Amino acid sequence: MACGTTFAKDQPVAYVDMQYILKNLPQYEQANEQLTMLSKRWQKEVDAAQQEARVMASNYQTEQIFLSETMRAQREQEIVKKEQEVLELKRKYFGQEGELYKKREALIKPIQDEIYNAIQDLASEKRIEVVKDRSADPALIYMSSKLDISDQVLHKLGAK
Hints:
The longest helix has 38 residues, at 26-63. Residues 1-8 have low confidence and may be disordered. It is rod-shaped, with a radius of gyration of 26 Å. Helix content is 72%, strand content 5%. Strands 1-2 form a two-stranded parallel sheet. The two termini are 43 Å apart. The chain is mainly alpha-helical and 160 residues long. It has one domain (2-157). It is built from 6 helices and 2 strands; from the N terminus they run H-E-H-H-H-H-E-H.
């Protein structure tokens, strides 16, 4: 076990700050803006459908005493159907495999792949064995700026 620890210490290590890198890539900012616009548009559509369901339920509450048993059952079914449509719309746009997820994957993944390739190239050029993301490491208290290759990654990507 001591040998494993010694080996790990002897490996050349560098750090990147992925948040910093992403923040400084114009294509990432553009992709984020596009995702935000789509999300807002889809949320408006969901909100409108929810409002329609609320109005249907409110109208039903008001008119319920004037409706026959058959009409009440029919209106209740319409309200339930509308609420299910709202849930389906939310799932369609914002679910795990929804449109927002697919769009994010299409816009962000190529940028992440480009960053990964730049990091890999730099690591190979500088003979770095391990590259860690310091923005994702809550245990990291201090790091020498000499170990941070974030600006070099940005340079390799043609940014900044």
